[in-house]
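Repro:
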Amino acid sequence: MTHSTQWGAPTPIDPKKGFRIHLIVFLLATPAIWLVWYLTDRTYPWPLWSTPAWAIGVLFHYLGVFVFKKSKNN
């Protein structure tokens, strides 16, 4: 995948960097989501829906980047 700069030259996007950003955002946002739940109404643990769903997304992102790599020659 590539994107264009303001000069029109396509630059490659590093999939490993994209995965690292995804993982860092997940690791930072998940405790924040649980903290919001803890500080508000604790009658129903609603983060139990978003946390595993997002973790599955991170897992598939990892698999797509590191396990099922696309070859450079298409």
